[in-house]
């Protein structure tokens, strides 16, 4: 695998492989010695695995790291942990091990390496230092993974959030800071393949005071619950009488994505009986910008984007700002407090 990956990367004239490592211990040493611009690293390695090596590298010499992940449930869970501990992105390895199988992900790998090389190091360091590691045993919420039916059923406001590269860690920062008393639903599109979105929702649910679930088709939307769009499905909402339900579908990709932030935002914009809030955080490209503009024109209560100073990749927020549809541009660590203020959950 090391040989195949090195060869695929070296086929691009803009990239140079300056070293390979057989295990996590060797990876830490070579990063220190060679000072690479980007590291690709397998999660499963002998002697020291990729998760442990990732954390050591981020402590000693913060470097953009792209994880290579298997498509198993164990692999997806470990990948989410890696993303929330400092990795900037990941590649899903094909199930086979020959060069043809790996060639299937070549373009994606090359693209993500070049993108990672552009990440401002100060943002990477700030993200790794300022976001606290949350104690999984700290929360007292029942870990059923299902919304608790009670006083959180009714709501008059709804929030929609879109993010991509750097999103899992950004989502952890925002969602884990929501208090248990937060009484509105939050629908989230994170660009991510199937299986990984379920692992992301499960981890965030363990860490958070609010309920976090991977959305299901025809699911009743409840207040105090975060719904993560499943990979490869667009997430929309339909309203019947006083109920709002989630509608999932596999329509064409929009802005190159499924799920798409634009699709979610356009759908939430149609909910005329609710105050609607829209948020865009770190991510490459422009998905969500047009949807936020439409939302603003349709009477959105607030539009919020993450500021450049904290974004791992500034593309999505920058695109929304360029369209002139943003009310608030703020750093990541202040987004939750802004959400609480604009919804009235925190008085200014």
From TrEMBL:
Gene Ontology biological-process entries: chemotaxis
GO cellular component terms attached to this protein's record: cytoplasm
Subcellular localization(s) per the UniProt record: Cytoplasm
Xref: InterPro entries: CheB-like, CheB_C, CheY-like_superfamily, Sig_transdc_resp-reg_Me-estase, Sig_transdc_resp-reg_receiver
MF (Gene Ontology): phosphorelay response regulator activity; protein-glutamate methylesterase activity; protein-glutamine glutaminase activity
Residues at the catalytic site: 164, 191, 287
Function field: Involved in chemotaxis. Part of a chemotaxis signal transduction system that modulates chemotaxis in response to various stimuli. Catalyzes the demethylation of specific methylglutamate residues introduced into the chemoreceptors (methyl-accepting chemotaxis proteins or MCP) by CheR. Also mediates the irreversible deamidation of specific glutamine residues to glutamic acid.
Protein name: Protein-glutamate methylesterase/protein-glutamine glutaminase
Organism listed in the record: Paenibacillus crassostreae
Source lineage: Bacteria, Bacillati, Bacillota, Bacilli, Bacillales
